[in-house]
Amino acid sequence: MEGVDHLAHERNKSEFDVDAMKIVWAGSPHAFVVSDRISKLVASDPGFRKDNRSTLSRKELFKNTLRKAAYAWKTIIDLHLSEEEAAKLRFYVDEPAFTDVHWGMFIPAIKGQGTEEQQQKWLPLAYKMQIIGCYAQTELGHGSNVQGLETTATFDPQTDEFIIHSPTLTSSKWWPGGLGKVATHAIAYALLIVGGREQGVHGFIVQLRSLEDHSPLPGMTVGDIGMKFGNGAYNAMDNGVLRFDHVRIPRNQMLMRVSQVTCEGKYKQSDVPRQLVYGAMLYVRQTIVADASCALSRAVCIATRYSAVRRQFGSQNGGPETQVIDYKTQQSRLFPLLASAYAFRFVGEWLKWLYADVTQRLQANDFSTLPEAHACTAGLKSLTTTATADGIEECRKLCGGHGYLCSSGLPELFAVYVPACTYEGENTVLLLQVARFLMKTVSQLGSSKKPVGTIAYMTRVEHLMQCRCGVQRGFAELSADLVEAAVAHCQLLVVSKFIEKLQQEIPGKGVKQQLEVLCNIYALFLLHKHQGDFLSTGCITPKHAALANDELRSLYSQVRPNAIALVDAFNYTDHYLGSILGCYDGNVYPKLYEAAWKDPLNESVVPDGYHQYIRPLLKQEIRTARL
Ligand SMILES: CCCCCCCCCCCCCCCCCCCCCCCC(=O)SCCNC(=O)CCNC(=O)[C@H](O)C(C)(C)COP(=O)(O)OP(=O)(O)OC[C@H]1O[C@@H](n2cnc3c(N)ncnc32)[C@H](O)[C@@H]1OP(=O)(O)O
Ligand SMILES: Cc1cc2nc3c(=O)[nH]c(=O)nc-3n(C[C@H](O)[C@H](O)[C@H](O)COP(=O)(O)OP(=O)(O)OC[C@H]3O[C@@H](n4cnc5c(N)ncnc54)[C@H](O)[C@@H]3O)c2cc1C
C-alpha cells in the first residue's frame, strides 16, 4: 500500500526523543541542519540517481561518475556551498570518485609536507580543481613497506631538476585512485638520491597529463589497473598504474617542509621529524574512522527495519507470525552492531578532536603527541574498519535471502567498504604499529617518563611492570599475541570515549538512557566475546562472566522497543540507503516485486540466446547446433 507507514507501530513504541537523538548523532544542531538539508537536496535531484548503478558496464559506470563529479562541482559553485556542505554533498552522492583522493590526500599532502611557497603555488589551483591530483605512493612490489619503494628521484645539479624513474617492473606505481584516467598531477613518493647517496622516501609533485588535451606527458606510461571486487561500486574509481622513464621535474617540486635539497645538491633535514612525510596518512585514517560509523549504521538501519518487517514462524491461532527482530538470536547478532555504530560515531568525533589538536601542535613545532596520534589513528582505523566490514556482511545474513539481492543495498555497500581494511594501511600492519607503541611505553614504565593520555592507564596495570624488561625481545615471535593486545587497547579506547560522551550533558527525553544501554551493550558484548582472555588472566571470575551474559540479554530487551527509532536517528534518506529492505516506510514486498521486473533480463519474455543455446538442447539438436 503506497503512502502507508508499515513501521508506524514500531515508531510509536519508542521511549525517547528521536529528534534530539538525531542531533546527538549529527554532532550538533548546526551539523544536523546542514546534513539534513544536503541529504534532501541530493535525494531530490535526478542528476544524482544511483539505483541503476549495478546494471552499468565499467565504461558506462566510469563515465557516469565523471558526469556526477562535474555536476556535483557545478552544484557546489552554483549554490556557493561551504567546505562543510560540499563534504556532505560528496557523502550523500555516495559514489567513490577521483575527487576523494584529490581532496582527501593530494591537498592534505601539500598542506602538511609543502613549504609556505609551495602551498601558495599549488593549493589555489587544486582548490579550484584547475589541476586534479592523486596520491601515488604504493607500487606493484611494495605497499605496506613504504621505505621499500623503488621509484627513484635523482637530483641533477646541472639542470636543477630531479629525474623521476621507475627502474623495475615492481617499481611501477600501482593502485593510486584517480591516477588511471583522470589525474593531471600526482604526489609521487620516491627514493631520493642526492650526490649518489640515498636519503629515504620523499614526496614530489609531478605533472602527469597535458592540461590542454589530457595526453600523458613524455616519459609517462599510465593507465587503469582493471576491474575490482564486486560489480559496480568501487569500479567507479580509476585506480591506476604509472611508470616513469627518466621524467624531469624542477627542484622546487619536491615537498620540502621536512627536508630540503639545495641547488648545490646539499640535502638538509629540518628539525621537524621525518614521520611528517606520513602526515597525509594520519589525516585520512582519521576520516576513515569517522566514515566507519556511517557505513555500519547504514547496514544496521537496513537490517533493523527489515527485521521488523520480516515475519517467520510462531503464528498463534492464525494470527501473524513472529517478527524476526523478536528472536533473541537475531537481537544478539544485530544489537551489538547497533551499539558499535554509536560507539564508532563517538570515538570518531574524539579522534577528529585529537587530529585537530596534533595538527595545531605540529604547526607550533611541538611534536610530542605525534606518536600517540599515530597509534590512535592507525589502531582505530584498523579496529573500526574490520568491525564494519564484518558487520555489513552480518547484516546481509540477518536479512536472509533477500539480503543477497543488489536491491537490498548490502552487497554493494560491502564491496565498496571492504577495501578500507586494506587501503591506507593494511589492518594487521597498522595493529603492529600500535603494538610497537604499546611495547615502547611498557619498556619505559617505572622511568621518569610517565605515560599520559590514552596510555595513562598502563601505570595502573601492575603486571605490566614485571614484563617491561623483556618486551623489546621477541617482538616478531610474539607478534600474533601483540596484535591481540593492540586490538584490546583500541577497544578500551572506544569504550572509554563512549563513557566520556555519557558524562556530558545530553538533552532530550530518554536520550541519555538509550545511549547508556548501548554503551553497556558494546562493553559487555566485548567482554562476552573475549571472556576466555578475561577469565584466563583472572580479570573476571566465571560468575562475573555469567552475570555479564544475563545483563546483555536484559539490555537487548530494553533496546527492542526502541530499535527502529534508534536507526531513524541516523536520519538517512531512502536515496542514501539505496535499499528496498531498509526503506523508511517498510513497504518491502511490493517494492521488491516491482524492482524485479525492471531488471534488464526481464525486458523480453524469451531471453536472448534462446534460439542458439536453449532450443537446441530441448530439441535434442545440440550436436548439430553452431555454438
Ligand atoms: C562524485 C562526487 C563528487 C563530489 C565532489 C565534491 C568535492 C568535495 C569532497 C570532499 C571529500 C573528501 C573525502 C575524503 C575522503 C578520503 C578518502 C580517501 C580514500 C583513501 C584511498 C586509499 C589511499 C591509500 O591507500 S594511500 C597509501 C597508504 N599506504 C599506507 O598506508 C602504507 C602503510 N605503511 C605505513 O604506514 C608505514 O610505512 C609503516 C608505518 C607500516 C612502516 O613501518 P616502518 O617501521 O618501516 O616505518 P618507518 O618508515 O621506519 O618509520 C617508523 C617510525 O615512524 C612512525 N610512523 C609511522 N607512520 C607514521 C605516521 N603516519 N605518522 C606518524 N608517525 C609514523 C613509527 O611509529 C615509527 O616511529 P618510532 O618512533 O621509530 O617507533
Ligand atoms: C581500493 C584501494 C585503493 C587504494 N588507493 C591507493 C592510493 O590512492 N594511493 C596509494 O598509494 N595506494 C593506494 N592503495 C594501496 C594500499 O594502500 C595498499 O594496498 C595497502 O597499503 C596494503 O599494502 P600491500 O598491498 O603492499 O599489502 P601487503 O603488505 O603486501 O599485505 C599482504 C599481507 O601481508 C601481511 N604483512 C605485510 N607486512 C607485514 C608485516 N610486517 N608483518 C606481518 N604481516 C605483514 C599483511 O597483513 C597482509 O596480510 C589502494 C588500495 C586499494 C585496495
Give the helix/strand layout.
Blueprint: H1 8-12, H2 18-26, H3 29-43, H4 58-78, H5 83-93, H6 98-113, H7 116-127, E1 133-136, E2 152-156, E3 161-165, E4 173-174, E5 185-194, E6 197-207, E7 220-224, E8 240-244, E9 247-250, E10 259-261, E11 267-269, H8 279-309, H9 328-363, H10 370-398, H11 410-417, H12 427-444, H13 462-467, H14 479-502, H15 511-529, H16 531-536, H17 542-559, H18 563-568, H19 574-577, H20 588-597, H21 610-618
Parallel strand pairs: 1-5, 2-5
Antiparallel strand pairs: 2-3, 3-9, 4-8, 5-6, 7-8, 10-11
Helix pairs in contact: 2-3, 3-5, 6-7, 6-8, 8-9, 8-10, 9-10, 9-14, 9-15, 10-11, 10-12, 10-14, 12-14, 14-15, 15-17
The chain binds ligand LJ27NJHV and flavin-adenine dinucleotide.
Keywords: FAD, Fatty acid metabolism, Flavoprotein, Lipid metabolism, Oxidoreductase, Peroxisome
Domain Acyl-coenzyme A oxidase N-terminal: 17-132
Pfam families: ACOX, ACOX_C_alpha1, Acyl-CoA_ox_N
Tell me what you see in this structure.
This protein is α+β, with helices and mostly antiparallel strands and 627 residues long. It is 50% helix and 9% strand. Strand 2 (152-156) and strand 3 form a beta hairpin. The longest helix is centred in the middle third of the chain and has 36 residues, at 328-363. It is globular and about 90 Å long. Bound molecules: ligand LJ27NJHV and flavin-adenine dinucleotide (FAD).
Quick synopsis:
FAD binds at residues 138, 177. With 627 residues, the protein is α+β, with helices and mostly antiparallel strands.
> How would the global form be characterised?
globular
Task: Please tell me how large the radius of gyration is.
Answer: 27 Å
Number of helices in the DSSP assignment: 21
Helicity, as a percent range: 40-55%
Strand content: 5-15%
